[in-house]
Amino acid sequence: MADSSTSKTATLSIDGQSYDLPMYTPTAGPEVVDIRKLYAQAGVFTYDPGYTSTASCDSTITFIDGDKGELLHRGYPIDQLAGNSHYLEVCYLLLYGELPTTKQLENFENTITRHTMIHEQMHNFFRGFRRDAHPMATMVGVVGAMSAFYHDSTNIHDAREREIASHRLIAKMPTIAAMAYKYSVGQPFVYPRNDLDYAANFLHMCFAVPAEEYVVDPILSRAMDRIFTLHADHEQNASTSTVRLASSSGANPFACIAAGIACLWGPAHGGANQACLQMLQEIGTPDRIPEFLARAKDKDDPFRLMGFGHRVYKNFDPRAKVMKQSADEVLDLLGIEDNPTLQVAKELEKQALDDDYFVDRKLFPNVDFYSGIILEAMQFPMSMFTPIFAVGRTVGWISQWKEMLGDPQNKIGRPRQLYLGSTKRDYVDIENR
Ligand code: CMC
């Protein structure tokens, strides 16, 4: 850990005994109290389910200011990256810490492009799944199975093997996601093409068929690239923390990323993009919005406004701002006028932001609110929304994994608990219960 310690300490008092706890000053964000020695010194644990006040690691990759609605990758604001950069340049930035020179970017793009094919034998894995399997289920299985094929990049103690695994994962994830899609619609797999850029290649693998030529629309590949960029990393979110925790035991990178994909699938996390479009379509017309807002506010109804709210952002999610603009552009460029789902989304956003319930709780649209509208316009089925999130987030998982393994203080993640179960008792034979 970089030395960020201060002379400041926090004092905790328990039963008249005081404990001084060291404090750290981050380059941005709130100060941090170090409780690592607390149990050894005071014999108590801290309690923080959901990690609402706990920094699980130190990191130099991504910073979010939730009150300002700001997201920085290695210091660069996401709107600048989404507007001026492109996904593979952002991948380089996240992985290596600095924007690349022309030569560095050329080499990196070349490496990623030349790792996009998967081992031919892996095609058989897909055929083991039912055709109606959710593509996320297929991805969890196939990405985990990469450990069985790429033995030469599973030694986590070797920096070069770690780098090869990183490149393989970033390069092969679009191929795997596209194959999961092709399998689900009963079409032949389409091999990657090295003359296309990352996003265009992904669209080609998803939508081309052998029977006729498919030319990727540059408008759509730009929008796809932006979606990947907006999802690239988001500091210690649930799936990234899952990857870090899995990796802390020394598990291989493919197993760790498969764990991240599994976590991302949930509707409170990456699964929200699919759930959000389903919700917008269920609402259907603006006149039904008040009914759904009432349900979202009703504590006896489990319904939540999908694509709304965030653990860290207490202001507009900056990714949602770019996504909203992108949705307008894509629909406009595709000549889709008066898209009813977009109309419902805009009106829902307006009414929610005027409603005290959402204002008081600082609930704003998040990245998932508008992404589904763009993906649907591109002809993706809803089941592909979360796999696309996984493709974009792979670089974030990998960068955080790499950072963690490079930290000499890295140790197995092992939370403690507030135990509320039975105390010790004797086993009772079945006939005496
Ligand atoms: N609709 C209605 N009420 C909500 C919502 C929502 N979407 N989100 C939070 N609330 C309410 C919640 O009921 C609680 O109210 P009260 O204080 O009266 O009990 C308050 O706001 C705080 O909610 P919380 O559940 O304590 O907040 P959290 O930080 O644990 O949850 C969240 C964050 C993202 C899981 C949650 O806002 C949510 O479920 N949103 C919908 C799902 C979603 O869009 N997820 C995508 C997140 S961004 C992309 C990603 O991470 O993958």
TrEMBL record:
Record's keyword annotation contains Transferase: yes
Catalytic activity: oxaloacetate + acetyl-CoA + H2O = citrate + CoA + H(+)
Gene Ontology MF term list: citrate synthase activity
Pathway(s) per entry: Carbohydrate metabolism; tricarboxylic acid cycle; isocitrate from oxaloacetate: step 1/2
Keywords: Acyltransferase, Transferase, Tricarboxylic acid cycle
Pfam family, one: Citrate_synt
GO biological process: tricarboxylic acid cycle
Top-level taxon of the source organism: Bacteria
UniProt-listed InterPro entries: Citrate_synth-like_lrg_a-sub, Citrate_synth-like_sm_a-sub, Citrate_synthase, Citrate_synthase_AS, Citrate_synthase_bac-typ, Citrate_synthase_sf, Citrate_synthase_typ-I
Active site residues of this protein: 310, 368
Stretches that traverse the bilayer: none
Record's GO cellular component terms: cytoplasm
Family listed: Belongs to the citrate synthase family.
Descriptive protein name: Citrate synthase
Organism listed in the record: Roseivivax halodurans JCM 10272
